[in-house]
Amino acid sequence: MNAQRAQEIVSSPVMVDVTCEGAPVYIQHVDERKETARIYPLGSPEEEREVPLYALTEQG
């Protein structure tokens, strides 16, 4: 996923289906400079982690 699209998803009021390694995730923050995103699995905000943007896939 590119940084611009990831930032659009973060800013959107509509929930967008995004996965990381096949698991549905919520994107909390995008760091365009580092090309990473802070994410967590849906329903598990305590499992927050930083991943490269290329690991994220938009579904649908």
Any overview of this molecule?
By secondary structure, the chain is α+β, with helices and mostly antiparallel strands. The protein has one domain (3-58). The chain contains 1 helix and 5 strands. A 5-stranded antiparallel beta sheet has the order 4-3-2-1-5. A hairpin with a 2-residue loop joins strand 1 (18-20) and strand 2 (23-31). The longest helix has 9 residues, at 3-11. It is globular, with a radius of gyration of 10 Å. The two termini are 14 Å apart. The mean pLDDT is 97.
Q: What is the fold's blueprint, element by element?
A:
Blueprint: H1 3-11, E1 18-20, E2 23-31, E3 36-41, E4 49-52, E5 56-58
Antiparallel strand pairs: 1-2, 1-5, 2-3, 3-4
Number of contiguous helices:
1
Parts with pLDDT < 50 across at least 5 consecutive residues:
none
Order of helices and strands: HEEEEE
- Helix-strand makeup class: alpha+beta
Mean pLDDT, to the nearest integer, reads: 97
Count of β-strands: 5
How much helix is in the residues? 10-25%
* Total separate domains: 1
Largest sheet, order of strands side by side? 4-3-2-1-5
User: Radius of gyration in whole Å, from Cα?
Assistant: 10 Å
* Percent strand: 35-45%
Biggest sheet architecture: 5 strands, antiparallel
Q: What is the overall silhouette?
A: globular
Distance between the termini: 14 Å
Oligomer: single chain
